[in-house]
């Protein structure tokens, strides 16, 4: 897959962290060999995180994240820090840029990195300007337990060593997850059921459908596509039942009722849940649907922000199914994009979308936050299968 066609959510996310004016932005520019980030002598130039997609030899498609300094101050500083913490939740490799002492703030952030089991690279940028870089390096070893790299973005020294260290610290197994896993194999016939209703984008397929088709073609599968109202014709046109049927979760019951006994059944949302999150956690979380009552509170989380459509799956269809099951008094709150509450304790269940716009690290961070607070979490597709009584017939 080319650099241009690799979705942002599938890239290795490299977060650049450090104090204001430590040289984070200039380091980004040196790595990309472009003026990607705004550089200034004024501390606090970077406000919202800057995301730069690129390809690094040995790493493949990456997303470099330039963050605001974690020593920012004031009301606006706190808002910028919130964005930096959000970037941390998406980070696969953390680069800590050090330029001055004391190292107390750096020590706190190293603890946050280690809590998330992140590979950490310490870099002393502006090494050409520091009078005693060796002393700073010694204290980084003693206080942070890290072996720092010396670099100068201005002189372009140490950049290749940093890139080599990034390659060496690439998380094991990153990018090896696939959408269809063992559900589809070389030579299989796979039937895709893709309703083209009001929620389908005009003239194009949605990202999970495109990614699924590409992966199946790479696996040398025979891919057949149809809409829900033509499913019977599509099945009749095949010489034998398909190995796998992948459908939009909204028509799960309809497709399940028509599928041949020999065919496996799943949905695009369930496939995304396995790629981005933890299917077993989501399946276990769906069991909490049985305990919901008219006084329960459910949080629905969408990765993307979009204008609500008629019969919207997250705002209309799932809440309707929940209330039919638990009672009309059940409360549903919908959040979009990065707006995911820190305090989840007031909810009885979280239902997350397929998260095609988020990277795996970000989704897992949300799962871990829910687990830490004892709140069950599941996925759109798995929740719909549970609510319609067919979860035991879905291939997970």
UniProtKB/TrEMBL annotation:
The UniProt keyword set, sorted, is:
GTP-binding, Nucleotide-binding
Q: Which Pfam families match?
A: HydF_dimer (PF18128), HydF_tetramer (PF18133), MMR_HSR1 (PF01926)
**GTP-binding: is it a keyword of this entry?**
yes
Q: Which GO CC annotations does the UniProt entry carry? A: cytoplasm
Q: Which domain of life is it from?
A: Bacteria
Provide the GO MF annotations for this entry: GTP binding
Protein name as it appears in the record? [FeFe] hydrogenase H-cluster maturation GTPase HydF
Q: Which species is listed as the source?
A: Candidatus Anaerotruncus excrementipullorum
Question: Where do the Hydrogen maturase F dimerization domain residues begin and end?
Answer: 179-277
Asked if the Swiss-Prot or TrEMBL record annotates the protein with the keyword Cytoplasm, the reply is no
Domain named Hydrogen maturase F tetramerization is located at: 281-393
List residues of the G domain: 13-126
The record's listing under Gene3D superfamilies reads: 3.40.50.11410, 3.40.50.11420, P-loop containing nucleotide triphosphate hydrolases
């Amino acid at each position: 897959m080319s650099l241009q066609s690799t979705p942002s959510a599938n890239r290795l996310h490299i977060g650049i962290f450090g104090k204001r004016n430590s040289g984070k932005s200039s380091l980004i520019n040196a790595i990309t060999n472009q003026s990607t980030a705004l550089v200034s002598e004024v501390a606090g130039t970077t406000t919202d995180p800057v995301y730069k997609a690129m390809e690094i030899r040995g790493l493949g498609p990456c997303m470099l994240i330039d963050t605001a300094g974690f020593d920012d101050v004031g009301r606006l500083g706190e808002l910028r820090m919130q964005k930096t913490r959000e970037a941390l939740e998406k980070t696969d490799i953390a680069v800590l840029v050090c330029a001055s002492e004391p190292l107390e703030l750096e020590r706190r952030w190293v603890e946050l990195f280690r809590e998330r089991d992140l590979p950490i690279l310490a870099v002393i940028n502006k090494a050409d300007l520091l009078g005693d870089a060796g002393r700073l390096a010694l204290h980084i070893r003693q206080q942070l337990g890290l072996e720092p790299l010396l670099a100068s973005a201005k002189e372009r020294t140490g950049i290749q060593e940093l890139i080599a260290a990034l390659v060496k610290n690439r998380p094991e197994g990153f990018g090896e997850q696939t959408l269809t896993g063992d559900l589809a194999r070389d030579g299989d016939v796979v039937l895709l059921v893709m309703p083209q209703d009001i929620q389908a984008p005009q003239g194009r397929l949605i990202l999970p459908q495109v990614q699924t088709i590409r992966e199946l073609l790479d696996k040398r599968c025979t891919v057949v596509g149809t809409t829900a109202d033509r499913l019977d014709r599509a099945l009749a046109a095949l010489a034998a039942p398909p190995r796998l049927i992948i459908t939009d979760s909204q028509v799960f019951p309809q497709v399940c009722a028509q599928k041949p006994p020999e065919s496996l059944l799943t949905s695009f949302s369930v496939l995304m849940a396995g790629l981005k999150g933890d299917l077993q956690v989501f399946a276990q979380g769906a069991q909490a649907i049985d305990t919901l009552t008219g006084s329960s509170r459910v949080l629905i989380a969408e990765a993307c922000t979009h204008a609500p459509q008629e019969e919207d799956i997250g705002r209309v269809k799932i809440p309707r199914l929940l209330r039919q099951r638990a009672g009309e008094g059940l409360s549903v709150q919908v959040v979009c994009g990065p707006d995911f509450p820190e305090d989840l304790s007031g909810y009885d269940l979280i239902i997350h979308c397929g998260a095609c716009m988020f990277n795996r690290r970000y989704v897992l961070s949300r799962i871990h936050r829910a687990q830490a607070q004892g709140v069950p979490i599941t996925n759109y597709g798995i929740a719909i299968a549970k609510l319609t009584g067919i979860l035991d017939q879905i291939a997970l």
